[in-house]
Amino acid sequence: MNVIHSTPFTDAILARGLTKSFGGTRVLSGIDLTVPTGSLLALLGPNGSGKTTTVRILTTLLPPDGGTATVAGHDVTRAGPQVRRAIGLTSQQATVDPLLTGRENLELFAGLCHLGRRQARRRAAELLERFGLDGAADRRAGTYSGGMRRRLDLAASMVSAPRILFLDEPTTGLDPRSRAGLWSVIRELLASGTTILLTTQYLEEADHLADRVVVIDGGRVVADDSPAALKRQVGSERLALRPANPADLPRAGATLPAAHLDPGSGELTLALQGPDHLRHTLDLLHGAGIPIERVELRTPTMDDVFFELTTVAA
């Protein structure tokens, strides 16, 4: 296998002031990112916030309008080939060929990475075993489950043994069991020294995997810290309330404008502000004629961080 040797770098990914517009729409408005070597950074944000655009710039698929970025010590605009040799990318849509077997897919990617036939076979076998696909190696990828296809896609991005891996929403659409399995693979890659930039809409995923979390909204960074520090930032406890009548949820939200409504659970949550806040909140709801069947105090989650920060930034 071709092995890339270069001067060691402290920050695997470094971006300063990245901007990008499409037509008259500004998508990125000065993004700063720092990903130390060997760490995992999770990039969070609502749809349209600029996550995928940022990844496309850092992987040389899209030029920035302004700002600078280096990946593996190479400038993304002036040293594209060197950047691409140092990275792997798993995009939102799987790139494997459903008509080929798992083994054939990996051998094809190995050939594209200029490995010889014998090296390609050996590397494909290594990755099939590492990602738990050796038992299905000679089945067509089109017969794989969603979790298996995502593992094969991730294995394909690792054919060249990249030092830096970009994962753009890799677990979207997977069931909880498949998602947990992919988390285990990601942890193993991180433990082996791979630097990972992960974009995700699953806030629990960022909480479980990331050393640091960057939240972007409207093309700007609105938070950059560890998951624990971000959860402390939104307060020590959250108040969760469930109206006795689910139809009252919108009216409860109008009564408590600072609350976040979750129609799926039938609950609204808000930061607890002082010892009298619970009584005051219940009095407001009682005055509005909204009976509450359940009250719960919870520690903050990454969901709370996301809703508070993106609301503030909106």
From TrEMBL:
GO cellular component labels: plasma membrane
Keywords for the protein's UniProt record, in alphabetical order: Antibiotic resistance, ATP-binding, Cell membrane, Membrane, Nucleotide-binding, Translocase, Transport
Keyword Protein biosynthesis set for record: no
Cross-referenced Gene3D superfamilies: P-loop containing nucleotide triphosphate hydrolases (3.40.50.300)
Primary residence: membrane
GO molecular function, one term: ATP hydrolysis activity
Pfam families for the chain: ABC_tran, DrrA1-3_C
Family indicated by similarity: Belongs to the ABC transporter superfamily. Drug exporter-1 (DrugE1) (TC 3.A.1.105) family.
Name of the protein in its database record: ABC transporter
Taxonomic lineage: Bacteria, Bacillati, Actinomycetota, Actinomycetes, Streptosporangiales
